[in-house]
Amino acid sequence: RAAIDTMTAFGSGYPTGIVSPQAGLFFASALTNILPPLHDWPLATPIVAIAAGVTLAWYAVVTLLLATPPARKWYERRRPAIERTLGLILLVAAIRMAAAAGPIAVP
Fold first, then answer.
1. CA–CA separation, 33 vs 27, rounded Å?
2. Whole-structure pTM value
3. Fewer CB within 10 Å: C terminus or N terminus of the chain?
4. Of 67 and 28, more confident
5. Among 2, 1, 13, which residue's Cα sits nearest to residue 65?
6. Residue 15 CA, distance from chain mean position
């Protein structure tokens, strides 16, 4: 595999992560589960702005970190275990949420 420099990796990885609809949907669902319904724009706007800023910063840090060869090698070796573990955590969370919601009423 050809080596690429950190900025090239960042320039490729960061935009890919930011425009991913998965990330936006994940954070939107997390915010709607954590916060009460916000009908007041002066209160909702800074919360959404902070969440967007944290998301942008998170992707920048992760992208820069994984653009370094040692971190990329470490992640590639452990990627299957990391993905299985996170998948299991998400599956358990989904099952718990579904169980807490109770049966679905069919009209």
1. 10
2. 0.55
3. C
4. 67
5. 13
6. 14
